[in-house]
Design a protein that fits this description.
The chain is α+β, with helices and mostly antiparallel strands. The chain has 2 domains: about 30 residues; about 190 residues, no CATH class. Helices cover about 20% and strands about 30% of the residues. It contains 4 helices and 15 strands. Strands 3-14-11-13-12-15 form a 6-stranded mixed β-barrel.
Length: about 270
């Protein structure tokens, strides 16, 4: 069964709009009492104006917070640079007297299962309730369903007929059990996916000793349980588990509890 997570997209900065450019002077109009310049009276803002300003402040703070997070991490995966490094390092390994001998130089990336609870208007998401074919009239936040389409699975807040997840596969949605791949149920910080054609094959168990990978996942051992044509050669897509999204837009592709984007590591086939 092909992987529901069929592509890895580059991730970039989300530009925050200046919500105050047209409203910074709102409510500051004055009226002078007489030609001699009497008392200056401010026009009291209406309740609707106050509510609108509050909504703008909330959305702006969310977006500016997302930009602040990104300023401390890699904004996107520079795939041309990554592919060049992977090719160079693996050519060196192949030229050794014994060849690769079960050792590769890889890039570790991350995927996860998004939770419906994190997709709210307050956090800047499009939380408009919509339904899709296969959901039988049940409605969910629009951005949540977009994230499910990309990641393959999503955890819903209220079970439907005993199912706690929505799955996207073959162009439609449906209610499902826990996330799984072609090789069985996904285990957080152990299951991984790799390119459907390449040296990293389903069923392999790999050791990744890189400190960056161990720091984020608290794990150095991975089993490839799924494959996907959208993954790159020598890319290991590591399953993080369930979490709310880091933020709106492209930040939906990352879990809230980490800003990890990618890391290099050697990978040794474990027997």
């Amino acid at each position: 069964m092909p992987s529901p997570r069929s592509s890895i997209n580059g991730r970039g900065r989300r530009k925050a709009r200046d919500f105050f450019s047209s409203s910074s002077r709102r409510g500051s109009n004055v009226r002078r009492g007489g030609q001699s310049g009497g008392l200056v009276q401010r026009r009291a803002p209406t309740e609707a104006t106050a509510q609108r300003s509050l909504r703008q402040s909330i959305v702006a703070s969310v977006l500016f917070g997302a930009v602040s997070i990104l300023s401390e991490t890699r904004a996107e995966i520079p795939w041309p640079e990554v592919v060049q490094r992977l090719t160079s390092e693996n050519e060196k390994l192949a030229r050794r007297p014994g060849g690769h001998a079960g050792e590769y130089f890889i890039v570790c990336t991350l995927y996860y299962t998004p939770k419906e609870s994190g997709f709210t208007f307050e956090r800047g998401f499009d939380a408009s309730r919509v339904t899709k074919p296969g959901l039988h009239g049940h409605t969910y936040p629009r951005d949540f369903l977009r994230s499910v389409k990309k990641e393959g699975y999503g955890r819903i807040t209220s079970p439907v007929n005993g199912h706690n997840y929505i799955r996207y596969y073959g162009g439609s949605y449906g209610f499902a059990g826990p996330p799984s791949g072609g090789g069985g149920a996904l285990v957080p910080r152990y299951s991984a996916a790799a390119r459907s054609s390449g040296p990293l094959r389903r069923g392999m168990i790999l050791e990744t000793p890189a400190a960056d990978v161990q720091k984020i996942f608290a794990s150095t051992r991975w089993k490839i349980v799924d494959t996907g044509g959208g993954l790159r050669r020598w890319q290991l897509d590591c399953y993080y588990g369930e979490d709310e999204p880091l933020g709106p837009g492209r930040l939906m592709a990352r879990p809230r509890s980490t800003s990890f984007e990618y890391a290099y590591s050697t990978a040794r086939i474990s027997k």
